[in-house]
Amino acid sequence: MPLFASSTITSLGGQPSRRPALAGWLLYSAALFEAWLFTWGRGFFSERLSPVAFVGAGLVVVLAGWFGAPLPAVRPPGRGVIKWWQAAGLLGGGAGLLVGLRDTVRMMEQFFIEVPVQVAYSDIIPAVQIYVRRWLWGSDVYRPLTHELGYPALPTYLPATWFPFIAAELGDFDYRWMAVGGLLAGVVAVWAWLVWLRRPWLETLLKAAFPVALIYSVLVTDPSIFVYSVEAMVAGYVLLLGAALLTRSLVLRAGALALCLLSRYFLVLWVPLLALLLLREGGWRRLLQFGALSLALLGAAYLWPVWRHDPGLMLRVQESYQQVAVNEWQNFNPATGRPYHPFNGLGLAAWFYPAAPTLDLIRTKVAHMRTVQLMGVGLVVAGVALGWWRRRKLTPDPARERWLAVLSLKLLLVVFFALLHVPYAYMLLVSVCLTGLIVGAGPSLWRYRIGAE
Asked: Is the whole model's pTM more than 0.85, yes or no?
């Protein structure tokens, strides 16, 4: 069987479509390159080229998924009795993945023991603890954080960022395990799709190994992402959203979307594209059903208990984020003479940083970058929406439409984080982890046929 032969896949519309199997290998290679630049190869190139390479790898992931074979509408037919050596390889590979995941979790445990949760190291988890304890004590969760942290701070965390940790507080275990558990739930969703698609056994192992290898690499090269933050849980939310998009369940989609919006508000910019998907799937009725369900979840979790008491809170939070960015652009690394996070090799902030930085010029550049970011995200939403609009007269292919929705989510994350004025590595974990789902559910690495017999 030729490695780069064409693959034939029949869509729900009944028309066979041909795509080069090379797209699957291009996607897998781009995903590995993106993961390498995020971990072992971070900053491998120059200060300005490394972020360009990282962003470019994310864009190639999207393009390879776009030009590759669409998500199969049905699973490939069985290939008869599995051979003993195939069964041995599958079982051995699966056992190896579980052992690798177990060792990774043990390594995390050692890091959690060695580095306790303290404001002196990072204020993220201590702030989450304050939210949780306020809720359990019946006090106002969203009043300003002052004496608890030791300095004044606005309550910037949305409910899905802290509410799940009530279980950790009541169970008296490390909050970071809840974040890791959220990420592992997303990995299980990726594996579930791999099992359902029933791809060739070697391909299944290669794709299932990707998220495990990614988590291990992040832990070895930058353990602070897991030790000082809870972003792993947000990455799990986005993986669950991507997996839910590949189904037709309104409940799964609404629940996963609510978790994402209640942890990272900027994903609301992508919601219009989801609305177009729902329109293509089932018209206005389906869209209104989804909207009502999502609004009920958001209203019960945030709009009624929080927003109605202080509608201006989010605006003040945005203003505080801009001031944080100005401070970070002045937080210099003595070894390089450059700010730590804008020059970490992951975002394009280095291209906006002034050659002769002064406070006024830094403020101007931060505001300029924020404007460019909004323009970039706007172009993504408008471009994808235009593509869907041009397809309006074509017979909808539900599998293809759902696949494009996942790719549009990845594209928005790539552009948003590329133009983020402070590209914290822990925040970009969300985008890199979503690649794992795209690899798992994306173009096949080998030729197979569906509906061709």
From this structure: yes
